[in-house]
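Quick one, tokens below. Sequence please?
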């Protein structure tokens, strides 16, 4: 009898833990404007993937790790064998690069190292398949009422593929384009929540 009680307690704990860490899927047939709001409110997520960048006739590839934790974000880019690694951190104090104290020239340093202006504030939303709520945008949905193409702040973002994630569907491959710049991002893994 004690063994059965212990199993019931353990089973209940496992079920409660599962409920606490997974987010419910969006309602079936949810309107796009509802879905945009849900995606824009996500404040705790992580992705692991790869980026391939072409700027004019130059190009490079890197692994990409992005972690959002409320007001804090960490972005890690590194080339083969860690060459050219960049660690960008956004906190309430500002942006910092490679562990240096936050400073006003971080975006200029990034542009110099990457070869283009990285739209960090907008990219956090674009990766989720949503527009930045602070700006105007044009969006073309696909057959599943998800973003197929998004245009915002001079960038065009094409969403080529989606993947199932914790009862939802999030981008798995996207291409960002701006005059003279193309950034292809392939996402291998999403992690939503705490």
């Amino acid at each position: 009898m004690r063994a059965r009680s212990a199993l019931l307690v353990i089973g209940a704990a496992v079920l409660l833990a599962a409920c606490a860490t997974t987010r419910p899927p969006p309602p079936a047939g949810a309107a796009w404007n509802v879905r945009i709001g849900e995606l824009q409110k996500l404040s705790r997520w992580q992705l692991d993937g790869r980026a391939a960048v072409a700027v004019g006739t130059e190009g490079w590839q890197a692994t990409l790790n992005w972690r959002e934790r409320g007001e804090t974000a960490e972005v890690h880019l590194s080339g083969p064998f860690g060459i050219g690694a960049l660690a960008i951190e956004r906190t309430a104090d500002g942006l910092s690069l490679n562990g240096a104290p936050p400073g006003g020239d971080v975006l200029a340093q990034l542009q110099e190292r990457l070869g283009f202006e990285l739209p960090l504030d907008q990219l956090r939303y674009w990766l989720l398949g949503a527009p930045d709520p602070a700006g105007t945008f044009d969006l073309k949905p696909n057959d599943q009422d998800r973003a197929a193409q998004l245009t915002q702040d001079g960038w065009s973002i094409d969403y080529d593929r989606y993947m199932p994630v914790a009862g939802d569907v999030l981008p798995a491959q996207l291409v960002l384009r701006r005059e003279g710049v193309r950034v292809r991002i392939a996402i291998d893994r999403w992690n939503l929540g705490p």
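The first strand starts at residue 44 and ends at 55. The chain has four helices and ten strands.
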